[in-house]
Design brief:
The chain has about 120 residues and is mainly beta. Helix content is about 0%, strand content about 50%. The chain is built from no helices and eleven strands. Strands 2, 4, 5, 6, 9, 10 and 11 form a seven-stranded mixed beta sheet that branches. The model has no long low-confidence stretch (mean pLDDT about 95).
Length: about 120
């Protein structure tokens, strides 16, 4: 499975960005966004799982109320809408995916098998 991210960039404090992740197959049902700043460990930001009947999401405490992860099945794309951005949100953002699911959704990087190269977000 290949994942291609886009949408990163530079934005002022309080601004917004929308990241996109397109998987090479739409059969991966669990997808997540992680971020990694220089000198820091990779951390989970948000995850989503889509079944035929329900979609579940999970957010890291640091982004609750500011970030939204959602999937557009028609466009076969998973988005991360980021609002009210803070300098601490600056990082390389990676999309991750897996065929499996787990409850609650995992925000630990070791669980995910497939990764994108990342898109840079800078908030200043």
């Amino acid at each position: 499975v290949q994942l291609v991210e886009s949408g990163g960039g530079s934005v002022q404090v309080g601004g917004s960005l929308r990241l996109s992740c397109i998987p090479s197959t739409d059969t991966v049902r669990t997808m997540a966004w992680f971020r990694q700043a220089p000198g820091k460990e990779r951390e989970g930001v948000a995850a989503t799982h889509t079944s035929d009947t329900i979609t579940t999401t999970l957010y890291a405490d640091a982004v609750k109320g500011r970030f939204t992860i959602f999937r557009d099945n028609a466009k076969k794309t998973v988005y991360l809408q980021m609002n009210n951005l803070e300098p601490e949100d600056s990082a390389m953002y990676h999309c991750a995916a897996d065929y499996r699911t787990l409850a609650p959704l995992p925000l630990t990087s070791v669980w995910y098998h497939y990764w994108g190269r990342g898109t840079q977000v800078t908030v200043s």
